[in-house]
Design goal:
6 helices, about 0% strand, elongated
Length: about 220
């Protein structure tokens, strides 16, 4: 019985890895559309968000089967409950990546400086998403803490982009509405970082039984 349960837990890990990869793909496609205006990238971001929603339902069903058909001990329950919270954050990441692709239609391509920093934010948030899922699969508390620390860097990047775009608005260096759209995109990347941080905190709880920041 336990061997069967461990096999299903391994399957849960694999499904989470797949969902994390979808999130990476959605973010990458959204930022490529923003920078390169490749329509295929926008379509991919939107379609991948739908796949993420389906994957969330698949993992929910798997977790419910683990809870109802098996008899998980305390550590197992932490893993399953953490997985359920993680997929909620990953679903929101997919939504926000799709939103970035949609908003990108209204952002001009002339504000290069702002876009460069937004690309930096995209790379950092993709790294956070990837490593937060990796920390869960590998039971790696140290990596989870590194993800949480990286969120501070993303916040700093957002502050830089915000200051840069506000200055451009005040200096009339570009279309104000387009600059505001870029600021909204940067905010979405900051939120994606927050969701990745939430995932890392779930990992710490699944390993230690304590929430991040607890004494």
């Amino acid at each position: 019985m336990r061997d069967r349960f461990d096999e299903q837990l391994k399957n849960l890990n694999n499904e989470l890895i797949a969902m994390g990869a979808m999130c990476e793909d959605a973010i990458s496609s959204a930022v490529k559309y923003l920078i390169e205006r490749d329509g295929d990238m926008k379509r991919n971001a939107v379609e991948t968000e739908k796949n993420i929603d389906r994957q969330e339902r698949n993992i929910e069903n798997l977790c419910m089967r683990l809870l109802t058909l098996q008899q998980p001990v305390a550590g197992d329950l932490r893993i399953i409950s953490s997985a359920l919270k993680m997929i909620s954050d990953m679903e929101r990441i997919g939504d926000q990546a799709s939103d970035i692709a949609e908003i990108a239609d209204y952002a001009t391509s002339s504000e290069i400086r702002g876009k460069v920093h937004i690309e930096d934010m995209a790379r950092a948030t993709i790294k956070m998403v990837t490593e937060s899922v990796e920390s869960f699969v590998n039971n790696d508390e140290i990596l989870a803490h590194e993800v949480i620390a990286l969120d501070n860097d993303v916040d700093e990047m957002f502050g830089k982009v915000r200051a840069e775009l506000v200055d451009a608005i005040h200096s009339s260096k570009g279309d104000a509405e387009a600059l505001i759209d870029l600021l909204m995109i940067a905010k979405y990347f900051e939120r994606i970082g927050d969701h990745a941080e939430n995932i890392a905190e779930c990992v710490i709880y699944s390993i230690t039984g304590k929430h991040a920041g607890d004494e």
